[in-house]
Amino acid sequence: MYINTKHLGIALLAPSLVAANSMKTLLSKRDATTYEQNAVCTADQLLRSYGTVNTGLFGQDLWWQSGNFISALATFFQLDPNYGSIHNNIFATTLSEAPGYGNYANFLNGWYDDEGWWGNAFLDVYDYTSDSTYLNQAITIYNDIVGGLGTPCGGIWWDKDHTYVAAISNGLYTELAAGLANRAGGGSYLANAEANWNWFFSSGIVGSDNIVRDGLNSDDSCSLNGNVFTYNQGVILGAAAELYKATGNQTYLATAAALADASTASGSDLTSSSGILTEGCDKSASCDTTAEMFKGAYIRGLRKLQLVDPESNWLNYITANAQSLWNNDLSVQNVNGESECIVGSAWAGPFNSNQANAVTQGAALDALNAALAATQ
Ligand SMILES: *[C@@H]1O[C@H](CO)[C@@H](O)[C@H](O)[C@H]1NC(C)=O
């Protein structure tokens, strides 16, 4: 039986869950360097949106973003097992209940990027739980995504209507295929990951400036859509980390390092002059709940690269971003002796309450995960 604890309130929780109450966070002061405590407070706030509107998801109309949140939470639970042990029932609930949101049986819908977020999320849940149910769910999703191969531009389609060839779908597919090679083994996972990686870097999507562009227009001779978003740059870094683990081939790290260096450089397309990861829409406080997710995906990928190929520049970048969002883009509300940490979209600040929601909360957790993992 499924019980939505968020609707019951803390006073009605079963005794086994009362421990959650004793873990409640009260920040005595704002310290941007206490990554674990800051991540707890950030995750608490993200979890307040869990199941409030759509069972198994976070808030309203946040389908693929919820896959990102599941990734971030599974990663944080691994970094902080005590915290994870209080909340880890969410994974079974999401697995069984979330597909009801759009009647997306098995987390499959019309978009290969949506599927890729969930596929990679279930690998993160598998890493945390060691429960093969989640690995099998990732395999089911992967098998559907493979059906998106065969565009006139190479790679996989963005969508099942075959309208566009997006960098993001291809980055996520490459990461998922390589991730399955590392966890499930066998099959064509590694060969498909390598083939799609090689295509990605020969397709024109990655510029000579080592900045990833948005995709190729299949209805216009595969012309380049030159838009730049942080997530396209970050997901392929995670794919490189998985491919390196699967093969030991340093080429993946060298290629990814060039992309990481280009995008972490102050004043680059993706980073402010003061070294803070910035989505284009952050500059005008105009991000929507799509773009608000992107920086989380970027820094998740940089974390994965940093963990297999540590570089002091990237470590400094990760910690600078985790500290900046705490110092410049946070609103702390004290409610009944508990701190609620609400993080906005623009990590360089200022905090803007119109740009603060479950999505910005999830992206911030990715940044805090990265700082925690990279400094442990
Ligand atoms: C390493 O990977 C690159 C990129 O896919 C490939 O060109 C190269 O042949 C690989 N090297 C080895 C030793 O397999």
TrEMBL record:
<dbReference type="InterPro" id="IPR053169">
    <property type="entry name" value="MUG_Protein"/>
</dbReference>
<dbReference type="Pfam" id="PF03663">
    <property type="entry name" value="Glyco_hydro_76"/>
</dbReference>
<feature type="signal peptide">
    <location>
        <begin position="1"/>
        <end position="20"/>
    </location>
</feature>
<keyword id="KW-0732">Signal</keyword>
<protein>
    <recommendedName>
        <fullName>Mannan endo-1,6-alpha-mannosidase</fullName>
    </recommendedName>
</protein>
<dbReference type="InterPro" id="IPR005198">
    <property type="entry name" value="Glyco_hydro_76"/>
</dbReference>
<dbReference type="InterPro" id="IPR008928">
    <property type="entry name" value="6-hairpin_glycosidase_sf"/>
</dbReference>
<dbReference type="GO" id="GO:0005975">
    <property type="term" value="P:carbohydrate metabolic process"/>
</dbReference>
